[in-house]
UniProtKB/TrEMBL annotation:
This is Haloacid dehalogenase-like hydrolase. SUPFAM superfamilies: HAD-like. InterPro entries: HAD-like_sf, HAD_sf. The lineage of its organism: Bacteria, Pseudomonadati, Myxococcota, Myxococcia, Myxococcales. It comes from Melittangium boletus DSM 14713.
């Protein structure tokens, strides 16, 4: 699903991250950097694996009870994860609908998002942004009901903490709100804090929206995973595998 975009990562991608931090330092409090959370700063695979393990416990399926994060290497492909756990095609189809329902009841909650890990270098990069004097704005499709778990996970992993002054966390008011529409509305708020110099997102649709709205910004695509929608990234968007940029 997402492997095609991983091939966009080109040698020298680290320089784009270094350039962004340099521009942030030069603009200081006038700079604004926007970050998505899921599959951009956070790795959701531990959360996914926990849910499938718990589903396995609920139906007494030994193979699903042993699900690990690496079984979710194909993004949000639950059938693929079940196959990697060792289920046959017949077993996958027999359990999929119930597992999907079980997943939907848990994935978008504070109780489960606390299990997320971070993308390599993400914590240090967000702290470097704050140290530059810039505004850091988390723009996420998570809803307000996930705020407590999200902020707890940020604290545990050392990401820059929302403080209402330099670091801001914009979340959907309601779980049912459309992600694309919410993010486009959030773009209008970014200009309230200064000049948008960079935006980071794993979803091609959202990365493209940033570049169209802020043509002078450096837009970074995280080549982790995505929803699978057949969207081509616009020219000028740089794909990176993670945030570690020292080498």
């Amino acid at each position: 699903m997402a492997s095609d975009l991983k091939t966009r990562v080109r040698e020298g991608w680290q320089q784009a991250l270094r350039d962004i931090l340099e521009r942030s330092r030069s603009l200081g409090s006038q700079a604004v950097l926007a970050f998505d959370l899921d599959s951009t700063l956070f790795d959701n695979r531990p959360r996914q694996a926990r849910i499938l393990r718990e589903f396995g416990l609920s139906v007494a399926h030994e193979k699903l009870r042993l699900c690990e994060p690496h079984h979710w290497d194909s993004g949000f492909d639950m059938r693929g994860a079940m196959r990697k756990c060792g289920l046959s095609e017949e077993e996958v189809e027999a359990h999929y609908e119930a597992a999907r329902t079980f997943w939907l009841e848990r994935f978008f909650t504070s109780d489960y998002c606390v299990d997320d890990a971070t993308i390599q270098g993400a914590a240090a990069f967000t702290c470097a942004v704050v140290a530059s004097g810039a505004h850091l704005v988390y723009v996420t499709g998570r809803h307000e009901g996930m705020r407590a778990g999200t902020e707890d996970c940020m604290r545990r992993h050392g990401l820059a903490q929302p403080d209402g002054e330099r670091v801001h966390l914009l979340m959907k008011p309601n779980a049912r709100d459309d992600d694309d529409a919410f993010k486009r509305e959030a773009h209008a708020r970014l200009g309230e804090w200064g000049t948008v110099v960079a935006a980071f997102d794993n979803e091609p649709t959202h990365a493209n929206d940033y570049l169209r709205r802020f043509p002078g910004a450096r837009v970074i695509h995280l080549a982790t995973d995505h929803s699978g929608r057949p969207v081509t990234l616009l020219d000028g968007i740089v794909s990176v595998p993670h945030f570690s940029h020292d080498s």
